[in-house]
Amino acid sequence: MKLKIALLLTIISLFSLPAVSSQAITEWTTGPYGNNENRSQILEIPGATDLTVTVVGVTEARYDFINIYDQNGSPIQRYDGNINAQFEVKGSRITAQLTSDGSITAAGVTVTIKKSQKSNYISRSVLLGNSTPYVLVDNNWIKMDFMTLCSSNATLRIQNKITNP
């Protein structure tokens, strides 16, 4: 009786190459701003597929705004007044923009991005056997050999399955 051994690797954590001790964080602080200002800053984490954006601070309510745009330049959020917000956005980059009117000003805001926990998530199992293994990372199939998979910073759960022919 011949035994077939199939090694099933289930990817259960984040995939990242090379290993990094902590997530990259990018921040923009407007500081106290003046009248009739219009300034912006691009915030980016190369390689990220999803970002967590945090906006905290104060602008003149109804007249001075913080606009957030996605990596394609499409508007996704607009804030004014007392701001304490957090949201997720697809992509590796946003643009934050401050615009003020011609009168009252405020202390300003801080916009922070960090790589989302779901960024670069491997979402499918890999069957190693006679075929070349592939993994699905953020809806993109990536060809992986066993050594590449083991040298990645992914956390793996290995299940051994023994079956009879």
- Uncertain ranges: 1-22, 151-165
- Rg for CA atoms: 23 Å
For the residues shown, what is the average pLDDT? 76
Helices and strands, in N-to-C order?
A: EEEEEEEEEEEEHE
* Beginning-to-end CA distance, first to last residue: 8 Å
Shape: elongated
CATH hierarchy class name of the largest domain: Mainly Beta
Structural class: mainly beta
Number of domains: 2
Helix content percent band = under 10%
β-strand percent reads over 45%
From the coordinates shown, what is the CATH architecture of the largest domain?
Answer: Sandwich
Task: Write the CATH fold name of the largest domain.
Answer: Jelly Rolls
CATH superfamily of the largest domain: Spermadhesin, CUB domain
Largest sheet, if any?
A: 4 strands, antiparallel
| Separate helix tally | 1
Write the layout of secondary structure elements.
Layout: E1 4-11, E2 25-29, E3 38-44, E4 50-58, E5 65-69, E6 75-79, E7 82-90, E8 93-99, E9 108-115, E10 126-128, E11 134-137, E12 140-143, H1 146-151, E13 156-163
Antiparallel strand pairs: 1-10, 1-13, 2-9, 3-8, 4-7, 4-9, 5-6, 5-8, 11-12
